[in-house]
Structure formats: structure tokens, C-alpha cells
Specification:
six-stranded mixed beta barrel, 233 residues, mainly beta, single chain, Barwin-like endoglucanases, 2 domains, two-stranded antiparallel ribbon, elongated, 3 helices
């Protein structure tokens, strides 16, 4: 659904030792990897963001391309370069602050929808994007909706000041995401000072371990974040 903006691998972003037992108390356990976690293997991660029309890259050019709803109503006029990239990535924030997503094709042309109550846009159907939590996956390898545990994320300081607990959600797909690849959503492209790029020790060719999470732990996580990711209100 989206291009891979940073084709890099991140390794050892944090250590489980940075998060003490009390960090997991809301789950009802105190271990790093719970009894509900099942190893999936090693995956090559990348980062992705969604377009921001206010970013310098899109600030010039004639806004002659129309973004239309399925019914043909005008949403906005944008540059051809911005529309081309939007059609690849799937969602964007317009310069007036509205969030748009591709909705469907009408007579071979893309049509769009203004997304309500989803400040970062939508991933796979039914899921809002959450920075540092949403992961784009190959659904043939990881079923959409799966709760994931990624030890390399443990200990990263999030914008809220909390430490990342390593749990994420397989709530999106993406161009080039096949097999043992995954893409972690980190917000808008204009947000250069985000938690992962500040904290990550970037290296190439260094895969990370990924686990699926099931049972009571998955149920607890889904309940805790449902308001953030569910678009089926």
C-alpha cells in the first residue's frame, strides 16, 4: 500500500532489561516474552510514514490535479507529483489538515475519501494507523489483525514519554512487503524527529526477531488499543 521510505534495518533499538517487571503489570504478568508469544522467526524491518502536503517537497508546482470522491465531488486540488505519490502510498494529510485515503477506483481512476477520527489515516480495512504500533506485513505470512511482539523495540522512548513495550499490530500491507519483511509506521513524513529515528542504531543486513501473541495477552492488548485503531465505531 505504501512505498518503503527508509530502506534500512534497525537493530538493538532497546533492551528488555530497560523495562522492568512493573512495566508489564497492566498485562497481568511480568515477563519479557509471555507464555502467549510464539516465535515467527527473523524479519527485515523498514520504516514508513504517510504523505504530508505541507512538507517542503510538495510546496511547489501547479495544483491542477483533482482528488475526487466516489460520487465525483471535489476534495482538493494538488500537484501531479503529490497525487502520483498519494496513489502509491494510499493516504496523506492535506495542507488544510484533512486526512485522505484512497477508497476505490471509478472507471479506472482513483477515488478518495476524507477520513474522520483517524489522525494518521487508515491502514488495512478497519484499522487506523498508530505510530510505533502499526506494522505493515505480507498477509500471506502474517494474518492481518495479529498482535506482534518485537523485542528490539523494547525500551524505546515514545513521544508520550512511555517506554515501548515491544507490542505492535499487523494492521497494514505495503508495496514490497513480502515474506519475512515488515514495515513499521512512524507518523508523518514531515515528522523527522520521531522516536525511532532518534533512538535507532541503524545497520544493514541485521534482521530482528518477531513473535506472534495470542490468548489472554492478545485479548488484553486488543482491548487496550481498540479505541486507537478501530475505525468501525
Amino acid at each position: 500500500m505504501r512505498v518503503l521510505i527508509l530502506a534500512v534495518l534497525f537493530v538493538a533499538l532497546g533492551s528488555a532489561s530497560e523495562v522492568n517487571a512493573s512495566h508489564y503489570s497492566w498485562l497481568g504478568h511480568s515477563g519479557e516474552v509471555t507464555a502467549d508469544a510464539r516465535a515467527l522467526g527473523s524479519f527485515a524491518p523498514t520504516f514508513y510514514r504517510i504523505l504530508d502536503e505541507a512538507a517542503p517537497e510538495w510546496s511547489t508546482g501547479e495544483r491542477g490535479e483533482e482528488l475526487l470522491t466516489q460520487k465525483g465531488q471535489l476534495i482538493a486540488r494538488v500537484t501531479s507529483a503529490f497525487k502520483k505519490q498519494l496513489d502509491v502510498e494510499g493516504s496523506a494529510r492535506l495542507r488544510d489538515g484533512r486526512i485522505v485515503n484512497i477508497e476505490d477506483r471509478v472507471r479506472g481512476q482513483q477515488r478518495y475519501v476524507v477520513v474522520q477520527n483517524a489522525p494518521f489515516g487508515l491502514g488495512a480495512p478497519g484499522f487506523k494507523l498508530i505510530p510505533y504500533r502499526t506494522v505493515a506485513v505480507d498477509p500471506r505470512r502474517i494474518k492481518l489483525g495479529t498482535v506482534l511482539y518485537i523485542p528490539s523495540l523494547v525500551g524505546i522512548t515514545l513521544p508520550s514519554g512511555e517506554l515501548h513495550d515491544g507490542f505492535c499490530f499487523a494492521h497494514d500491507t505495503g508495496h514490497g512487503i513480502t515474506g519475512n519483511r515488515l514495515d513499521l509506521f512512524v507518523g508523518f513524513e514531515s515528522d523527522r524527529d520521531n522516536a525511532l529515528t532518534r533512538s535507532a542504531r541503524i545497520a544493514s543486513g541485521e534482521p530482528i526477531r518477531v513473535h506472534t501473541v495470542v490468548g489472554a495477552t492478545a485479548a488484553t492488548l486488543n482491548a487496550r488499543f481498540a479505541r486507537d485503531f478501530s475505525s468501525r465505531d
